Amino acid sequence: MYRYVIKRVLLVIPTLLGAAALVFVLMRLVPGDVCVVRLGSSGGTFDPKAIALCHEELGMDRPIIVQFVAFLWATLRLDFGTSMWSGATVIAVAIAIPLGTLSAIKQNSWIDHVVRVFAVAGIATPSFWLGIVSLLIVLNVTGAVFGRPWMPPIEYVPIWQDPIRNLSMALLPAVTVGYRYAAVSMRMTRSAMLEVMQEDYIRTARAKGLLHKLIINRHAMKNALLPVVTLIGIEFAFLIGGLVVTEQVFNLNGVGRLFVQAVQNQDYTLSQALVMLTVTIFVLCNLVVDLLYAWLDPRIRLS
Fold first, then answer.
1. Helix/strand/coil (H, E, C) string of 255-274?
2. Span 259-279, mean pLDDT?
3. pLDDT tier at 242 (50, 70, 90 boundaries)?
4. How confident is the model at residue 87 (pLDDT cuts 50, 70, 90)?
5. Rounded distance between C-alpha atoms, residue 60 and residue 70, angstroms
6. pLDDT band of 153, cuts 50, 70, 90
């Protein structure tokens, strides 16, 4: 097990280096100049000397190879520089795995039908639309119950300034987004559990007279969770930067929203930092998924 873990951890290093090189090259291939955009944002005029001074300030006048080495060194030190422009998974897992397992165990019962309708509705409903509807429901319900409507704060407040206000602002978007991804994971859990419950070793365990609860927890669950773990890892990484519209609905300062602004402003530094953050999250999620594979199925690490 230790050799398998060390091998998987060491594979992370060349993956991140390759991603850093690809990000650096692609950002330089994007048409435009951040200095032209920044100096011309106010609508005024500027001369070539101002652009040259801006290039020198941002280090863009140096050779490409020197810029790349500096970028790698800064990445290793987790120092992505100063911006060139401006200087819900827990909920999903907590809902998906228990309900998906219960739906498979109670196949074709009323519980199974309710869970399947719940899952299909979540898959078919966009998160941003569900967010708008949830805001309207909260306004109407609180208005009817308390006599005055209440809604989560719209103005963003960092958690270190006001933890309660920050959490109250993040609760509703976390629930709406978590429901969407819980629905996907729930369907996968149900399908995997149904497939595993039909295997020969499950029938053998039943023939031996083992308790149904023991069969589910010790024999069926681990094997059924393999595809579910993969899906959860991918969805978790996607949540880092794939919720631009939802962030707009709830006025959240998310990574996706910041990413769009950085690309619009041609901010190389900020764009590279956000891409590397997303890549790192994806790589670490894949690493965790591989380690969970080895824990759930010992045959993986032995091969």
1. HHHHHHHHHHCCCHHHHHHH
2. 75
3. low
4. very low
5. 11
6. low
Cα gap 55→122, rounded to integer Å:
49
Q: Quick one: tokens of 104?
A: 């498979």
Tell me the whole-structure pTM to 2 decimals. 0.64
Distance CA 182, CA 119 (A): 8
For the segment 187-202, the average pLDDT, to the nearest whole number, is 85
Residues constituting the chain: 303
- With tokens 């053998």, the residue in question is 204
Phi and psi at residue 81, to the nearest 5° = 85, -175
Using pLDDT thresholds of 50, 70 and 90, give the confidence band for residue 147. Answer: confident
Q: What is the DSSP string of the chain?
A: -HHHHHHHHHTHHHHHHHHHHHHHHHHHHSSS-HHHHHHTTTS----HHHHHHHHHHHTTTS-HHHHHHHHHHHHHTT-----TTT--HHHHHHHHHHHHHHHHHTTTSHHHHHHHHHHHHHHHS-HHHHHHHHHHHHHHHHHHHHSS------S---TTT-HHHHHHHHHHHHHHHHHHHHHHHHHHHHHHHHHHHTSHHHHHHHHTT--HHHIIIIIIHHHHHHHHHHHHHHHHHHHTTS-HHHHHHHT---HHHHHHHHHHTT-HHHHHHHHHHHHHHHHHHHHHHHHHHHHH-HHHHH-
Q: What span, in angstroms and rounded, lies between the C-alpha atoms of 107 and 101?
A: 10
Confidence of residue 85 (pLDDT cuts 50, 70, 90): very low
Q: How far apart are CA 264 and CA 262, in angstroms?
A: 5
Task: Kindly report the backbone phi and psi dihedral angles of residue 149, in degrees, each rounded to the nearest multiple of 5, phi listed first.
Answer: -70, 145
